[in-house]
Design brief:
The chain has about 450 residues and is an alpha+beta fold. The protein has an eight-stranded mixed beta sheet with strand order 1-5-6-11-10-9-7-8, with helices on both faces. The chain has a five-stranded mixed beta sheet with strand order 13-12-14-15-16, with helices on both faces. A hairpin with a 5-residue loop joins strand 3 and strand 4. The chain is elongated, with a radius of gyration of 28 Å. The protein binds adenosine monophosphate (AMP). Adenosine monophosphate binds next to strand 10, strand 11 and helix 13.
Length: about 450
């Protein structure tokens, strides 16, 4: 039993930071997922669905300490059997776990996977930041080649464009391989030590745990200090430099615009080489609604997704060897909120006809008529719970559906139906077995 009592109001509320997704919103999410899936499949990616829960170590080792995700935001579950599981806070580590578990190294490389579903982070809820949010991600595992970084980035831009996002901006950076990073971190730590006086407690702690994260800091006191900080690209060894140069060349060749941003490091431990983030420049949120310190109010840019290369992830997770990979995860809630033209999902078809039934006999036979239409792929709307002609006609008028089918006592006995053109108000009686053909001819 929990030690906290739930009040009656709380009882009928979704948990804080979580919400029901319904109606048009639901279709928007679905429309986006379908569009992203279509692009992923086109590029030869295959679907994977990993469990919501994973062993805690998948994330503590994979994502790493010194990150907010692991230190503060994980939903941990202690099972009755004594296992420590975590509700996945991100997608990549789970997919890498699955790749190893299923021996995907033995398949032709690289293995290209896409996934979608909820992620959980116990963060402070606000607009565009939820405790349960939805992701769509892709991962290319088993290739160290720079072209894969470019393909993944290109696909991300495509998905956002086709999801109706305007003003997409892409920021990229390289944090290099382990060798490059060692020298860089040394320099970075020295640099921040000189600015300790201006740093808040969190950032000072980061200096010890994960100095790269300070570059992500939202503290206005650090804006200029971060802008002047040593840049990771200056510390790239020749291999890392070559890799990054090739990624940019590929992007130039495909015509993907990007901005170099040396403060972009993406706080997660597992990144190597290329890191990137997708933004939309137009913030859809009125600033007064955003809590002080929120990233949107400071930057006017809304992060819609991010990713990078993670060649050391498998080893960090405790696997015996390195498995190169690159991928990204989108924040689908933000994409749906920011899009002005989200694609319609396949199930959402415009109804062609509105079905009206009158009398017991007709009501009884209604489902049979509707089934004939469904089998012929003619989308129909109806209100079977209603009885009167007036109320059904009123709904039909309001819906703007061009034709109404009127099925009364006489028609039910004769196996026919009246087709009414709502604009001209002309009516034709048609045999039920010729109905589908007739409607298709309209
Ligand atoms: P991250 O891997 O943390 O960069 O997350 C990837 C994307 O997920 C971000 O760019 C956001 O669009 C989205 N995202 C991250 N955290 C949240 C959250 N708490 N609520 C909604 N979307 C989020």
């Amino acid at each position: 039993m929990s030690d906290k009592k739930t009040s009656r109001e709380e009882l009928f509320q979704a948990p804080k930071g979580m919400r029901d997704i319904m109606g048009d919103d639901y279709y928007s999410y679905q429309g986006f997922f379908e569009k992203a899936q279509e692009i992923a499949e086109y590029y030869g990616f295959k679907p994977i669905q990993t469990p919501i829960l994973e062993q805690e170590e998948i994330f503590t080792k994979g994502v790493g300490g010194g990150t907010d995700i692991v230190d503060k935001e994980m939903y941990s579950v202690k099972t009755k059997g004594g296992d420590r599981l975590v509700m996945r806070p991100e997608g990549t580590a789970s997919v890498m776990r699955a790749y190893i578990e299923h021996g995907m190294q033995n398949k032709p490389q690289p293995v290209k996977l896409y996934y979608s579903g909820p992620l959980f982070r116990h963060d402070k809820p606000q607009k565009g930041r939820y405790r349960e949010f939805y992701t769509f991600g892709i991962e290319v595992i088993g290739s160290p080649k720079s072209i894969m970084d470019a393909v993944v980035i290109h696909m991300g831009v495509l998905m956002l464009k086709e999801a109706g996002i305007e003003n997409i901006s892409l920021k990229i950076n390289s944090i290099g391989d382990a060798e490059s990073r060692k020298d860089y971190l040394k320099e970075l730590v020295n640099y921040y030590k000189k600015h300790l006086g201006k740093m808040n407690v969190t950032d000072r702690q980061r200096l010890k745990d994960n100095p790269l994260r300070i570059l992500d800091s939202k503290d206005p006191n650090l804006f200029q200090i971060n802008a002047d900080a040593p840049q990771s690209v200056s510390f790239l060894n020749s291999t890392s430099k070559k890799h990054f140069k090739e990624v940019m060349e590929h992007l130039n060749e495909i015509g993907v615009d990007y901005e170099l941003d040396h403060t972009l490091v993406r706080g997660l431990d597992y990144y190597t080489h290329t890191v990137f983030e997708f933004f939309t420049t137009e913030s859809s949120q009125p600033e007064d609604k955003v809590e002080p310190g929120a990233e949107v109010s400071l930057t006017k840019r809304l992060a819609l997704g991010g990713g990078g290369r993670y060649d050391y992830l498998s080893k960090a997770m405790g696997y015996k060897k390195e498995i190169p990979g690159v991928g990204f995860g989108f924040g689908v809630d933000r994409i749906v909120e920011a899009s002005k033209n989200i694609p319609k999902p396949r199930v959402k078809k415009k109804s062609k006809v509105y079905f009206i039934q009158l009398g017991t006999e007709a009501k009884m036979k209604s489902l049979k008529v509707i089934e004939v239409l469904r089998q012929n792929k003619i989308p129909v709307r109806q209100s079977l719970s209603k009885d009167s002609l007036g109320s059904q006609l009123a709904i039909a008028e309001k819906s703007g559906i061009p034709h109404t089918l009127i099925f009364g006592q006489k028609e039910a006995l004769e196996n026919s139906i009246i087709v009414r053109d709502m604009a001209s108000r002309s009516q034709t009686t048609v045999d039920i077995d010729k109905l589908a053909k007739y409607l298709k001819s309209l």
